[in-house]
């Protein structure tokens, strides 16, 4: 099969187009012929080596964390899927590799593709939607009537986060540039702040939840917009000790992450608010619930650009630029 790989961590090297053997399907896996693959900042960060201590991958490595396609083989113990099923997924860590023609995925990480959207739209959903689901439903327990601040509302995570928060009955504030006001308003944003002109921390107050996706300075400002007992959930770091425990990291890494997160943890405690880091995980059951919301019209995909398979390097560069509205997708088949 054709695939794009890396042979080492590098910020400057391009992905290499090559031939690889078709994946061997284990008893609890399905083989998916990939139609489309979503592109995420996580792919760029892994390529650059930003996560090499947390996710020590082996080379050659096929990147890609989002997939939509057709099941072509099933393992002996697979019970939930059959050949011909249209599916979508965020493969688990160490089992990624959607910048290719085929991928083997554990059936517990897969869901049936929503019937009312295209393969390209389906490929844009898994990683960002699972991130938002786990932030708002698992960590924040977001409730009707609460207020949530979502940074970068026009981005891949932001566009889905606004919609899920509104579905849950929250009031939503977000930051974006003036050119994206109409987009985030159409998704349900109630309070829209032009980050180029205004300081959100001077406008927002008494919020219940902040979804942080930006830098450390923005994170510290975000703590100040929360009411006592509110929570910041960060998907951009710093990782904390709770994450280290969940990930089964060594005592040394737990110590490293304690010191990395200590400053923001102390500031949060002083303000009587909470801080937690989220590194989303694959979950086919949650993806099935998200699929139902898409079919009901509560969530719609937002796609910026669809690239061809041959343009995978260009797609990754575009995502790295931070200019995309919604998601970037590669059409493989």
Q: What count of helical segments does DSSP give?
A: 11
Could you give me the name of the CATH homologous superfamily of the largest domain?
A: Medium-chain alcohol dehydrogenases, catalytic domain
The 3D shape can be described as globular
- CATH topology group of the largest domain: Quinone Oxidoreductase, Chain A, domain 1
CATH class of the largest domain: Alpha Beta
CATH architecture level-2 label of the largest domain: Alpha-Beta Complex
Q: Classify the beta-strand content into a percent band.
A: 25-35%
Secondary-structure map:
Layout: E1 2-6, E2 16-19, E3 29-39, H1 41-48, E4 61-62, E5 67-74, E6 86-89, E7 102-106, E8 110-112, H2 119-123, H3 126-139, E9 147-150, H4 156-167, E10 171-176, H5 181-187, E11 191-194, H6 200-203, E12 207-212, H7 216-223, E13 226-234, H8 241-246, H9 251-270, E14 274-277, H10 284-296, E15 303-308, H11 312-321, E16 327-331
Parallel strand pairs: 9-10, 9-12, 10-11, 12-13, 13-14, 15-16
Antiparallel strand pairs: 1-2, 1-4, 3-5, 3-7, 3-16, 5-6, 6-8
Helix pairs in contact: 3-4
Write up what this structure looks like:
The protein has 333 residues and is an alpha/beta fold. The chain has two domains: 2-124 and 302-331, Alpha-Beta Complex (Quinone Oxidoreductase, Chain A, domain 1); 127-277, NAD(P)-binding Rossmann-like Domain (Rossmann fold), CATH 3.40.50. The chain is built from eleven helices and 16 strands. Strands 3, 5, 6, 7, 8, 15 and 16 form a seven-stranded mixed sheet that branches. Strand 15 (303-308), helix 11 and strand 16 form a beta-alpha-beta unit. The longest helix is centred in the C-terminal third of the chain and has 20 residues, at 251-270. The radius of gyration is 19 Å and the shape is globular. InterPro entries: ADH-like_N, ER, GroES-like_sf, NAD(P)-bd_dom_sf, YIM1/Zinc_Alcohol_DH_Fams. This is NADP-dependent oxidoreductase. Residues 11-330 form the Enoyl reductase (ER) domain.
